[in-house]
Inverse folding.
């Protein structure tokens, strides 16, 4: 993926049935601190960071960069979805949600909207996703979003799974998490 530039970023907010995906703003800072200091969130992404460390180091507007969407529900940030340049020329999808947002289908809804936006913005570019095989929920979501397995490998002391979603089309089956 080439970097998202001024021609495509930031997009107008993306709206789904329940969510808004938008660029980060200053009011999101407390939710970013909560997200990255949560032990539950950190389980499959290398651990959480101490809240005090995050409070001291986090910029006034965290997460403001091309490819990073804040996911908002009822006016409050509940997570983030990212589309970043990957090592292999593909774009990598990433997402993190606050534990209180788990189990409601928000990740599927938000990732589906971001993938659909990306397919319209960068036609023909595939997207990859990496997760630990031990993360059952992420593995189910990857399948629901249309990712197919291309490899498994060991990294960070755990088995990793990489899937690819070919370019084009809308996201299948994003009605549940």
């Amino acid at each position: 993926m080439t970097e998202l530039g001024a021609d495509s970023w930031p997009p107008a907010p993306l709206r789904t049935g329940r969510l808004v995906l938008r660029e980060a703003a200053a009011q999101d800072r407390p939710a970013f601190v909560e997200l990255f200091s949560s032990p539950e969130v950190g389980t499959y992404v290398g651990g959480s960071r101490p809240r005090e460390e995050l409070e001291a180091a986090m910029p006034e507007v965290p997460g403001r960069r091309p490819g990073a969407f804040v996911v908002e529900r009822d006016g409050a940030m509940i997570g983030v979805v990212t589309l970043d340049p990957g090592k292999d020329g593909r774009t990598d999808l990433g997402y993190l949600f606050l534990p209180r947002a788990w189990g409601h289908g928000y990740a599927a809804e938000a990732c589906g909207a971001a993938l659909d936006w990306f397919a319209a913005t960068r036609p023909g570019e595939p997207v990859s996703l990496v997760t630990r095989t031990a993360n059952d929920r992420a593995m189910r979501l990857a399948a629901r979003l249309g990712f197919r397995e291309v490899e498994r490998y060991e990294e960070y002391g755990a088995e990793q799974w990489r899937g690819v979603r070919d370019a084009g089309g809308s996201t299948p089956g994003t009605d549940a998490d």
About this structure: The longest strand covers residues 76-85. Residues 95 and 156 are 18 Å apart (CA to CA). The chain has a mean pLDDT of 89. The first helix runs from residue 29 to 37.
